């Protein structure tokens, strides 16, 4: 089984927390750290939520690094309408923050110094942290083995506007700056086109509930708001859980990729739109 060194860049958030749980439970993963970006909730609450999840899983040794508290250019808009006021279905209201006294740039730099071309960076929130790293140290991101991103939408309806997916919509300038980088390692983009098919069905959720184990109970509890949101917003039963797909696909490849050039619209009605041009 392939061993993966990973760093997760998260805005936890319900599905980010599920992705983190999956990464911790998957034995071939060595999690070098979790960086936090403002997105679903602000980075302070995100760091508290990551602390809660990692402590719940007895993973006190995994460093949490707090990053950008707002988008590069435009005002910050959270997604508490989807994730709850606390980002975890209004069930946890985590209060402890054990993020370390380091910034994202120096954390990434020391990680790639130690393990050049060996780390998978999984970016599951707005790309603000990655863009700031690229601005401060062009070329640093190319020292990762690969970058896998949940973001964007190509042929289906967006979740913030007809063409806008939340992560790119929240900080379109960061996404644009990221994709403008000349020097990137292999980069994989998981758009809503594919993550929409990752549905936690009512049956599966009920099965999780019936397991009556603490972790299963936790997953059941923090998905409640998501379920209610999906019902209210689109009359769907169950909930779409985008972010864990990136972790699952690294674990057990199941998504097919096509080479493409991506640009991002930064303003107007098309804010956050990912324009995908396939390449031969
Ligand atoms: C993405 O936005 C967030 O709400 C989710 O955590 C996911 O990363 C889906 O558009
Ligand atoms: Ca996310």
UniProtKB/TrEMBL annotation:
GO cellular component: cytosol
Gene3D superfamilies, per the entry: Ribonucleoside hydrolase-like (3.90.245.10)
First and last residue of the signal peptide: none
Transmembrane segments: none
SUPFAM superfamilies named in the record: Nucleoside hydrolase (SSF53590)
Limits of the Inosine/uridine-preferring nucleoside hydrolase domain: 6-277
Domain of life: Bacteria
Entry keyword annotation includes DNA repair: no
Name used for this protein in its record: Inosine/uridine-preferring nucleoside hydrolase domain-containing protein
Lineage of the species this protein comes from: Bacteria, Bacillati, Bacillota, Bacilli, Lactobacillales
């Amino acid at each position: 089984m392939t061993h993966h060194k990973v760093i997760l860049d998260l805005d936890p958030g319900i599905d980010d927390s599920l992705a983190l749980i999956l990464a911790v439970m998957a034995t071939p993963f060595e999690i070098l750290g979790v960086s936090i970006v403002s997105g679903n909730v602000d980075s302070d609450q995100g760091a508290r939520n990551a602390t809660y999840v990692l402590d719940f899983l007895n993973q006190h040794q995994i460093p949490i690094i707090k990053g950008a508290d707002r988008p590069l250019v435009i005002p910050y808009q959270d997604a508490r309408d989807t994730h709850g006021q606390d980002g975890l279905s209004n069930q946890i209201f985590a209060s402890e923050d054990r993020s370390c006294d380091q910034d994202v740039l120096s954390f990434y730099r020391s990680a790639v110094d130690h393990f050049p071309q060996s780390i998978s960076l999984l970016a599951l929130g707005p790309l603000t942290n990655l863009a700031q790293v690229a601005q401060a140290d062009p070329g640093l991101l190319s020292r990762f083995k690969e970058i896998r991103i949940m973001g964007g939408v190509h042929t289906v309806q967006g979740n913030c506007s007809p063409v806008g997916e939340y992560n790119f919509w929240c900080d379109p300038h960061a996404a644009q700056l990221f994709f403008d980088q000349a020097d990137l390692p292999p980069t994989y983009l998981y758009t809503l086109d594919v993550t929409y098919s990752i549905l936690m069905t009512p049956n599966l959720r009920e099965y999780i509930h019936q397991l009556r184990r603490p972790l299963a109970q936790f997953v059941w509890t923090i998905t409640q708001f998501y379920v209610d949101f999906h019902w209210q917003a689109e009359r769907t039963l169950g909930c779409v859980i985008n972010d864990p797909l990136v972790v699952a696909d690294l674990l057990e490849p199941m998504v097919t990729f096509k080479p493409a050039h991506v640009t991002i619209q930064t303003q107007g009605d098309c804010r956050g739109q990912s324009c995908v041009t396939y390449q031969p």
